[in-house]
């Protein structure tokens, strides 16, 4: 129902204040520029790099299934083994808007633009959803805007686009179809969503959830809603169209992926108590890449709200306030016990499919679910009363605590956090330093292969080097064994955890050492050294490995047929680099 002009004034004010606060949320990334810290884990070490790599390899809009990207996991020109690299189909589709943004803009600028877009979509989508379907009353405007603002602060991974924060906007569009109030803008939302999200992470599970919502509604009303079915069909069809390379490769098995050897019986404990603990952890603190925040505050408010609704005999609200946490528990249990299903299916055709594609990722739906629960719970308290404001303020504090990357950048702005503690984008990728290394070697980068030690290979890859090591979620299985020969002795010397991590997982194909363990981040202010390195230099040479780019000195380099070429130190870099040449 439209609001009277007298009612819209405070609501507009709330919206403007929220937009201003979101501007402050973005401000550190603009002010610091490339001096800002960006999350490294599953971001700068991988997904962020993949988006940029498509640009520098000129394959962003290459849809040929036979195209291979040779910048990692490929053997050099003088190698005795033959590996060509990673199939282009294993990377993000060129039809994705994030790929387009990284193609058009410098990488850090693309990150900031997507940061603004992802969190802005989260605010607009949650506001529209709450305003029309959850908190439509004009006197709930403050609560509606406040929850939308808090949802926009969910610290999800930007490289996933709107996979998480776009869900309320998509649900808003589908509820309009369900209630037969659709407009052209709803179809636009549905049409664009597959091109700014990721099927593997969230798309499939969003489609399943929307299918269940539509099915339940049609069963209750005892009529088929063709408009809703058409919307769901369009969404699914566009996902297939946008991700057709990945889907085709998955179904047709164009190559045998290392993922077929994921051993869940080793990667996850098979004890019942550990699986329950894993589920409980996800319930209390959602997965880091979906936007991790402490949920028990919302759960407590929901519990109080359910009690108040029960006292008022509002059983419809009670059902929602109990049902949504129950649904969250089911999602968490699916994740916690998924490995039992995979192990039970074994090496059957279906088992391999469940092993390669993780069908437990319904947890990508949790942030939206939790904030819808929060909105429904606050309905049970006096409008704009002290309890409602206290709960919103408390959740705001929890969201600030959850935004570790943002807090680090505030620390950088105020001088409390140094580069040595948390490297900036500029210091991590160290372009000036790696330009010096490239110039010193003095050959076209495609003519030789490097391997990294004590640092993520993404640093070298970002700077155009062709690496034997890499962090890849999907690559040809034979390479796993060819690379393992290099580090076989170190894996034997190392911990059981290290061996399992490589043999049962092997997405991080890194130069592991027993002395350094599973640490890949040794800055110049740290002073470890390798005294007992034992790598198979013949296996390294057979892949065409010519140089080791190391963040730590190798004291017994000659024993491994390595020759120190030069030490590179650059003021803006996080690293001190020892460049070793492999003696054949």
UniProtKB/TrEMBL annotation:
The keyword Repeat does not apply. The chain crosses the membrane at residues 12-32, 108-130, 142-175, 187-213, 225-242, 282-306, 318-342, 362-381. InterPro entries: DUF6044. Keywords: Membrane, Transmembrane, Transmembrane helix. Pfam families: DUF6044 (PF19510). The keyword Transferase does not apply. This is DUF6044 family protein.
């Amino acid at each position: 129902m439209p609001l009277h002009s007298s009612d819209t004034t405070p609501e507009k004010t709330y919206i403007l204040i929220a937009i201003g606060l979101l501007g402050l949320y973005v401000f550190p990334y603009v002010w610091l520029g490339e001096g800002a810290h960006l999350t490294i884990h599953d971001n700068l070490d991988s997904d962020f790099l993949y988006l940029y790599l498509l640009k520098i390899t000129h394959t962003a809009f290459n849809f040929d299934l036979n195209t291979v990207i040779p910048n990692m996991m490929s053997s050099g020109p003088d190698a005795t083994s033959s590996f060509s690299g990673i199939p282009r189909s294993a990377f993000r589709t060129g039809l994705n808007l994030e790929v387009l943004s990284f193609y058009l803009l410098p990488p850090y600028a693309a990150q900031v633009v997507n940061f603004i877009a992802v969190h802005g979509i989260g605010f607009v989508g949650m506001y529209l959803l709450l305003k029309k379907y959850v908190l439509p009353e004009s006197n709930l405007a403050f609560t509606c805007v406040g929850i939308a603002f808090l949802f926009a602060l969910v610290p999800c991974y930007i490289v996933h686009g709107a996979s998480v924060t776009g869900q309320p906007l998509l649900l808003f569009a589908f509820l309009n179809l369900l209630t037969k109030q659709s407009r052209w803008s709803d179809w636009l939302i549905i049409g664009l969503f597959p091109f700014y999200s990721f099927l593997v992470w969230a798309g499939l599970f969003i489609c399943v959830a929307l299918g269940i919502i539509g099915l339940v509604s049609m069963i209750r009303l005892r009529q088929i809603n063709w408009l809703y079915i058409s919307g769901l069909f369009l969404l699914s069809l566009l996902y297939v169209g946008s991700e057709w390379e990945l889907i085709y490769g998955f179904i047709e098995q164009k190559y045998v992926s290392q993922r077929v050897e994921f051993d869940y019986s080793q990667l996850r404990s098979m004890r019942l108590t550990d699986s329950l603990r894993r589920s409980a952890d996800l319930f209390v603190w959602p997965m880091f890449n979906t936007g991790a925040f402490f949920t028990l505050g919302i759960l407590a408010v929901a519990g109080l709200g359910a009690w108040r609704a029960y006292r008022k005999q509002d059983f419809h609200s009670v059902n929602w306030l109990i049902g949504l946490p129950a649904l969250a528990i089911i999602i968490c249990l699916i994740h916690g016990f998924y490995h039992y299903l995979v192990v039970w299916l074994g090496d059957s055709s279906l088992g391999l499919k469940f092993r390669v594609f993780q069908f437990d990722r319904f947890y990508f739906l949790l942030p939206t679910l939790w904030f819808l629960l929060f909105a429904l719970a606050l309905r049970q308290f006096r409008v704009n009363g002290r309890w409602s404001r206290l709960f919103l303020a408390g959740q705001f504090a929890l969201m600030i605590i959850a935004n570790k990357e943002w807090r680090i950048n505030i620390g950088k702005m105020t001088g409390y956090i140094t580069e040595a503690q948390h490297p900036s984008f500029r210091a991590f990728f160290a372009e000036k330093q790696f330009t010096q290394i490239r110039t010193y070697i003095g050959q076209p980068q495609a003519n030789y292969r490097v391997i990294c030690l004590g640092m993520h290979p993404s640093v070298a890859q970002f700077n155009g080097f062709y690496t034997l090591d890499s962090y890849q979620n999907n690559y040809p299985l034979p390479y796993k064994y060819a690379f393992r020969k290099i580090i076989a002795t170190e894996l034997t010397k190392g911990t059981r955890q290290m061996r399992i991590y490589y043999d049962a997982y092997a997405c991080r194909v890194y130069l592991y050492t027993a002395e350094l363990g599973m640490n890949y981040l040794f800055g110049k202010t740290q002073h470890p050294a390798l005294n007992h390195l034992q790598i198979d230099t013949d296996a390294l040479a057979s892949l065409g490995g010519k140089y080791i780019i190391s963040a730590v000195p190798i004291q017994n380099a000659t024993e491994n047929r390595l020759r120190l070429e030069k030490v590179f130190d650059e003021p803006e870099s996080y690293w001190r680099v020892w460049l070793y040449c492999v003696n054949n």
